Amino acid sequence: MKSKRILIGKMPSILWGVPSDRLYLYVHGQHGCKEEAEDFAEIAVNYGWQVLSIDLPEHGERGAETNCFDPWHVVPELAEVMDVSKRQWETISLRANSIGAWFSMLAFEKERLESCLFVSPILDMHNLIANMMRWADVSRERLEQEKMIDTNFGHTLSWEYLLYAERHPIATWEFPTRILFGENEPLTERSTAEEFACRFHCEMTVMPNGEHWFHTPEQLEFLKQWTYTSFTCVRAEHRH
Asked: Which domains are present in the chain?
């Protein structure tokens, strides 16, 4: 598969596939990188798409960066990627993982996306932070006072982040969207995902025994087949 490393602003990126007027933006989640888009791109190029994947702050080639993997840094960067993409491609779709889906919804709410594929998406960040505060036994008052609190499960609670999540709920999402959700997803409650899917008319697939991170051979095969099905369904819808 043809691929080319490029730079968008300060974002190391990879463009996969032969020239086309259709593009999928691939947005990774926490601990991800632009290279992980290869498996998705292998499928997408067969349906006439190119794929553009980027390294978000603190990830991939940007691993030396600090204190910038947050929406007030990431969302403007994604907006820059979209602006560049719109100048080169007529049709743009989105494939996003985990928190990358939340960042993308914040950044692309007013754009025009052909279709969206979300894998283990974070759909309600305020609810997730509230859950993490409960897991860590941290009150709102304490977080407001201390501003930043480390937890024993690896996440740092941030007062600024909590306020941002409260002030930026996902109020509209009008693009055809398919969601892949693991039965044992620990970060987004299934009821939250089902409510989101109902509210915004998304198609949701639940993998039995699936986790947040699709990484076992069985999970990766399920993800692959779901991706193939998604492309097949989109192509069939466009014929009608």
From this structure: 3-123+173-231 (3.40.50.1820), 125-169 (no CATH)
